[in-house]
């Protein structure tokens, strides 16, 4: 019994060492430029740029296969940041990929939702929760506003709305009038 355990342990160590060597020898070096470009993109994973997500779009920009003006959620500010990083001139958003618009959040009318799960399957960031034939809801803090859940909904129960006011986003909207105190 002890010999069998020792043999299995030795085999595990040998295979672990072999995997470690293979990982080092077969490692693919990451492009740091891709990481920097990806960090500037809005991470909506909306595919409006023509790529399945922000990372593939960043890889295409780094390889010179895509222009910096294909991301509607990033808008002009995103294009300016990309142009600054890459040392290129600003070019306006390519309208073929969509219009720049303010961030929106998906909201499901839970009274109308039939629980078909099509929106769950379409969401690239897993911001929708629910089960088959059960009401679904959106986790607002996870929703990127990509709108990919709207089209597959057969009962049109998903609406894109402006994000609500939170304690973190609240600002005093009225001018502060200094009080004159007389002595």
TrEMBL record:
Residues binding [4Fe-4S] cluster 1: 46, 49, 54, 71
Self-association state and partner proteins as the record states: The complex is composed of six subunits: RnfA, RnfB, RnfC, RnfD, RnfE and RnfG.
Obligatory cofactor(s): [4Fe-4S] cluster
Name used for this protein in its record: Ion-translocating oxidoreductase complex subunit B
Cofactor, free-text remark: Binds 3 [4Fe-4S] clusters.
Keywords on record: 4Fe-4S, Cell inner membrane, Cell membrane, Electron transport, Iron, Iron-sulfur, Membrane, Metal-binding, Repeat, Translocase, Transport
Residues at which [4Fe-4S] cluster 2 binds: 113, 116, 119, 153
Summary of the function given for this chain in its UniProt record: Part of a membrane-bound complex that couples electron transfer with translocation of ions across the membrane.
EC number assigned by the record: 7.-.-.-
Entry's localization field: Cell inner membrane
Residues that bind [4Fe-4S] cluster 3: 123, 143, 146, 149
Domain 4Fe-4S ferredoxin-type, chain residue ranges per copy: 104-133, 134-163
Family per record: Belongs to the 4Fe4S bacterial-type ferredoxin family. RnfB subfamily.
Pfam families: Fer4_21, FeS
Domain 4Fe-4S: 29-88
This protein's encoding gene: rsxB
